[in-house]
Each structure stands twice: as C-alpha cells, then as structure tokens.
Amino acid sequence: MSTRILHISDLHFGPPFVPAVAEALLQTLPSLALDAIVVSGDLTQRAKRHQFEQARAFFDRFPDLPLLVIPGNHDVALWRIFERFFKPHALYCKIITPDLNPVLRVGNVLLVGLDSTAPRHSISNGRLYPHQLRHAEEAFAAVPDEVTRIVVAHHHFAPGHDPVFDIAMPGAQRAIDCFVEQKVEMILGGHLHRSYIGSSLDFFPGHHRDRGVIIVQCGTTTSNRGKGREREENTFNLIEVASQTLTVTHYLYFEEAGKFSPLSKHIFPRPGRAFDAGDPASGTSPA
Ligand SMILES: [Fe+2]
Fold first, then answer.
1. How far is the CA of 123 from the centre of ligand 1 (A)?
2. DSSP letter (8 states) at residue 89
3. Which CATH number, 1.10.150.530, 3.60.21.10, 3.30.830.10, 3.40.50.620, labels domain 3-274?
4. What is the pTM of this model?
C-alpha cells in the first residue's frame, strides 16, 4: 500500500500564469490516483487579492483531497511596504489558509509545511527560523518511527545546478542537519523555477555521511517563468511513498500534445533498505 502525493509549485496567478497548462494539469489529476496535493508556494505573481482569489478558485477545482499549501516570496507584497512589514501574509491567510506552517498526516506520511518567506529579512531569498525547526521537531516527535517524514518549504535547499546562478537558502545546512536528526526523508520545494531531484549530500555532506535527505524541487507548474533547462517549460512531481522505496516521477508539459507526461522516474530505497540484486527497480541483475 503506497501513498501518492502530487507536488506542484510556483503557479504565479497573474500575468505569467498560463491557463492552458493549468487546464492540462486539472485533466491529469484523476489519472494519478492521488492521496494528497502539495503546493510549495508562489501561488501569485504580486500577492494581489484577485490573484489569491484565482488561486483559491483553482484549488476548489481539485479532486476532494487533503491539500497542503505554503506561501512563497511572491505571496508577500513586494512594494506595498506597510503591508510587507506589518501584515505580510494578511491576504494569503484570509483567502488561502490561516496556517503558515501546516501539518498534514496522510496515510503513513507526515508532511510539515514551513513558511520560508521571511519578508522582514529578505526580499527574494528566504530562511527558516529556530522556532520553525522546533515546530517541525515537535510534529515529527509526535508520530511513530515508521511514519515517513516530509518537509515542505518554498525556498531551495539545493543551489542552482546549471549556469543560472543561485546559492542555497541561507541556513539551509543547519536546517538539513536538524531534519536528519528528525529522520526526515524528503524535502519538497520550488522557487528556482527549474527542477532538481537528488540528495542533500550533493551539497552538504554534513555529519551523517551515509544518510542525507532527498531534495525534490519543482519547476513552475503553470507559469511562463521557467528558467535554465526549464525555460518556458512547466513541470510537477508525483511522489509515491511505499514501504521499501520513495519514488519521484517527474512530469513535463508537452506543448504539441497539450498535456503533461512523465519525463523521468527516480527511485530511492528507504533508510535501512537496499535494492536487491535482481530487483527490476535496481537496474541490477543476479550474477
Ligand atoms: Fe516563483
């Protein structure tokens, strides 16, 4: 029995939003046999009321499933300075959800969403504060060991991996060290508008050299703001949590076909597990 989670990001309702791609996403959803949907921030382009209302209306067209949403830096007013400093999430909380650090249990998976926007300290980049790491720690401590732990945060734990320059979110290494202690297996995020699926060990070898955290960063699912290899492309991820493996299927929107289709599949053995020789998923065969 597995748990299937849709991971979309950076919708950017406003001028960059591409309605045809959004419709294609909605068409795809019934075939994915989902248990939950995760939206990792940047619902809007400029945090305007009507953009949040469009995002809300879009979510209302999703199948009736548990939904975890967190804000991105574009969901905080950029130029409306009073609003940015004194009530940065007012519209988001009123129209989308009042919970900026939501916790969702679905099947044998616990998802902890963390608001990484930090509007008083950062314009575009983000950060996580110690109280948020404690919040995650308390949520994960309250569930049995066998529950799969996943963190969702908008900003990127893996730096840009192509010629478009980006460094990781400040404090990313400290947060990952905490997540490893909390037995977090996967982090879902966005922000860079191009996908990355890999391991925190690629960037932060850290204290636990044998056990990093799987990092899954989604491109922009419904806007024209894709960057790097995903320039003007749209992507999402399907996460499948099973007893032996975590599988990420990476979908790309194919414009000629007018639909999303799988582009690659990434299979990770769960901690303490290994692919057996002869297992088709391992790519190995018995000697
Ligand atoms: Fe974005």
1. 13
2. T
3. 3.60.21.10
4. 0.92
